[in-house]
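Late entry, evening session. Most of the bench is empty. Finally got around to the prediction I had been postponing all week. Sequence below, unchanged from the version circulated by S.P.
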Amino acid sequence: MKTCSAEVILFDFGGVLAEEGFKNGLVAIALRNGLNPEKFLQQAFALTFKRGYVTGRMDEAAFWQALREQTGIKGSDAELRAEILLRFELRPWMIEMVKRLREARVRCAILSDQTNWLNELNEKHDFFRWFDKVFNSYHMGKSKQDPSIFDDVAKALQVAPEQILFIDDSSENIERARNKGLSTILFKDKESFMQELMSFCSFCC
């Protein structure tokens, strides 16, 4: 029988299941406006988290307006959001991995520091159907910067934290999850990820 030491595998979205559309899109916006990408990223991420776009306390229109006022970028909301959304490309090999895991009765879920965009991306690509549960910070009212989100997820999934394998491309998120008792994989690239996943679910790689 195919077995996995984790009962639930919890995937980040951008940077794991899909290409990192938010960061890459912001870099494109910065370059198009003649701005320093690193400084622009810092300003955008500060707005996203500190002002609460990622936790649903600020809507998208307010986010873009605040970013324009702080940085001087040009473009309509539609033009700016297009730079982000077109760069969230699902990784087909990851979706195939999820399918194999679920065929082996391993539950799979998403935990993403995302916004209204995650639902819109699902409407376009229909990927929620491959997951048992989707946790979006925008609807939860807290992000992965708040370690208690991992308690909330474990409770919702009705498993102990130790039964969850969490995969993320942020070392800070990985550390917070590990401190809450979750097993973790820091995603760097496909090859190293596959090797690490084998230590939990050898049948899938």
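Two things to note before I forget:
The mean pLDDT is 95.
The two ends are 15 Å apart (CA to CA).
Will write this up properly tomorrow.
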